[in-house]
Write a structure and sequence with these properties.
The protein has about 425 residues and is of the alpha+beta class. The chain has helices at about 10-15, 40-65, 75-85, 90-100, 105-120, 145-155, 170-180, 280-285, 290-295, 320-330, and strands at about 5, 20, 130-140, 160-165, 200-210, 220-225, 235-240, 245-250, 255-260, 265-275, 300-310, 310-320, 345-360, 365-375, 390-395, 400-410. It has two domains: about 5-210 and about 310-375, 2-Layer Sandwich (Antithrombin, Chain I, domain 2), CATH 3.30.497; about 220-310, Alpha-1-antitrypsin, domain 1. Strands 1, 2, 6, 7, 8, 9, 10 and 11 form an eight-stranded mixed beta sheet that branches.
């Protein structure tokens, strides 16, 4: 009997995409193909999103603390930034286009393809619970351009709401939306109170819950060794299938990969492990689009018993430095960022926050992700507070003649 033992660390490589792949079936219908052919633009967008997601994962691997687990949703980050991309202009738009790997698509093709991809993923497998939601929340005194809102409503199915950000109910309202769309797995993404310089949040939420097509036997789960890099081991709850099951399998001199199916077989978890003394970081850094495609395309169907850890992880990070390293510095530059397609104020990206949750057990997997792009304003025209010592002058504007000039250190000193 063939056995495959899966590492606890490596599911986070695979789970960067609980991806489409595509005998006991959960539910009445096995999915054998997509319901329609993808357009050329849709195929290019998926290629772009995957290329962006893999380089995002590689950069996080470089910046994250050694030994820390990682779990991200490349699609969530790409979609939140995709909405933001519609508001960028000039050099900012060009930088975002390159970072997001969208050079091969017009803005119209990006939007059209996201619209159809959202519909496709939402309705692909009735055996799997899948929620994908977008929203835009803006400070109600921000003169948002209607075209920007209309595009994101039409193509990203974004819910759009203006709020009084100074109200005590503003942050709880946004966080309640996040909680609802992730079935309570992520409860907040916006700080309370909302900082005064923030004027907009562009938020994506994704929720996935799928039973394994071939489930593990709870009665067989028992503590077993998990071998750490650099030596040593820890005891972890190790799940085991009751016998041989259908899996995808790939093996070469550097990696071994398995593919475990969910529901009607439209979704799967792909687990990639280094072979022999190979290091996980080296594996991650090798995962560009071509290498990922080589592994996925090389999967062959085999019958095997599988042992793998049962685990739960909550993860969060701020993506500013990661995205800057990938070429988006200008979008975070308060003076040079150009988001003039959102509003005529001087806007910039203040933070990109990302939170995720995953629970892998004998029955299946539950996962959630939220990405929030926080838009700040350099100077806020509606409110200027003169609350510190100042110099003032009375002048004739057209000739430039200064008539009076003074210094106020204490306005009540006389």
């Amino acid at each position: 009997m063939r056995q495959v033992r899966a590492s606890l660390i490596t599911p986070f490589i695979a789970a960067l995409a609980i991806c489409c792949s595509g005998d006991r079936i959960i539910g009445p219908q096995e999915i054998t193909s997509l319901p329609r052919d993808l357009t050329a633009a849709e195929e290019e967008l998926i290629r772009s999103d995957n290329a962006f997601g893999l380089k995002l994962f590689r950069e996080i691997d470089l910046q994250e603390e050694i030994g820390a687990n990682i779990f991200i949703s490349p699609l969530s980050v790409a979609m939140a930034l995709g909405m933001t991309y519609n508001g960028a202009a000039g050099e900012t738009q060009a930088a975002m286009q390159e970072t997001l790997e969208l050079q091969g698509l017009t803005l119209g093709e990006v939007n059209e393809s996201y619209r159809s991809l959202i519909d496709l993923l939402r309705n692909l497998d009735p055996n799997v619970e899948f929620i994908l939601a977008n929203s835009i929340w803006y400070r109600n005194d921000l003169p948002v351009k209607q075209d920007f809102l209309d595009v994101n409503q039409e193509y990203f199915d974004a819910e759009v709401t203006g709020l009084d950000f100074s109200s005590p109910s503003a942050a709880p309202t946004i966080n309640a939306w996040v909680d609802d769309k992730t079935n309570g797995r992520i409860t907040e993404i916006v700080d309370d109170p909302i900082p005064v310089w923030l004027v907009m949040f562009l938020i994506n939420a994704i929720y996935f819950k799928g039973d394994w097509t071939f489930q593990f036997d709870k009665d067989l789960t028992a503590d077993g060794p998990f071998f750490l890099e650099g030596g040593g081991q820890v005891q972890v709850p190790m799940m085991r299938t009751p016998g041989e099951i259908e899996i995808g399998h790939y093996f070469d001199s550097e990696v071994e990969a398995i593919d475990l199916l969910y529901g009607g077989k439209a979704y799967s978890m792909t687990i990639v492990m280094p072979v022999g003394d190979g290091q996980l970081s080296a594996l991650v850094q090798s995962l560009d689009a071509a290498r990922w495609a080589e592994i996925i395309d090389g999967l062959t169907t085999v019958e095997s018993q599988v042992w793998m850890p049962k685990y739960t992880l909550e993860y969060e990070l701020e993506l500013n430095e990661v995205l800057k390293a990938l070429g988006m510095e200008i979008a975070f530059d308060e003076l040079n960022a150009d988001f003039s397609k959102i509003a005529d104020w001087q806007l910039y990206i203040d933070k990109v926050k990302h939170k995720t949750f995953v629970d892998v057990n004998e029955e299946g997997t539950e996962a959630a992700a939220v990405t929030s792009v926080e838009i700040g304003v350099v100077s806020m025209p509606p409110t200027v507070i003169v609350d510190r010592p100042f110099v003032f002058a009375i002048r004739e504007k057209f000739s430039g003649t200064i008539l009076f000039m003074g210094r106020i250190v204490n306005p009540v000193a006389g």
